[in-house]
Write a structure and sequence with these properties.
By secondary structure, the protein is α/β, with parallel strands linked by helices. The chain is built from four helices and four strands. Strand 2 and strand 3 form a beta hairpin. The protein is globular.
């Protein structure tokens, strides 16, 4: 049976170890995994949700945060509805890296971003 729903692609980016995968898993599967498992490249997670009496399909593109994968992440923005930038509140450097991630997203994805986070 074909479902009629609007699709949203969200790219999840941020420095390594910030919890991108756990945030994605919590939203899609309501699961939390202790410990850090590095993502290699990108992982896809999807969820169908009901919003204002309409079904939507959200696909999260959980990207690797390591420096060597930053250039790859540019191709992930194609067709994206939005970007979720994640940082770790206990890691100041990951917060400082938010501006770099915003710049990377804005050059790859047509976004109007503030020059400074928050």
């Amino acid at each position: 049976m074909d479902e009629d729903y609007e699709m949203f692609k969200i790219v999840v980016i941020g420095s390594t170890g910030t919890g991108k995968t756990n945030i994605s898993m919590r939203y899609v599967k309501n699961e939390y995994v202790e410990g850090h498992r590095a993502t290699v490249g990108v992982e896809f997670l999807s969820k169908i949700a009901q919003v204002r009496n309409q079904k939507i399909k959200v696909t999260l593109w959980d990207t690797a945060g390591q420096e060597r994968y930053k250039s790859l992440s540019k191709v992930y923005y194609k067709g994206a509805s939005g970007v979720l930038i994640v940082y770790d509140v206990t890691d100041q450097q990951s917060y400082l890296d938010v501006e770099t991630w915003m710049r990377l997203a804005s050059t790859s994805f047509s976004l109007r971003l503030k020059s400074k986070p928050f």
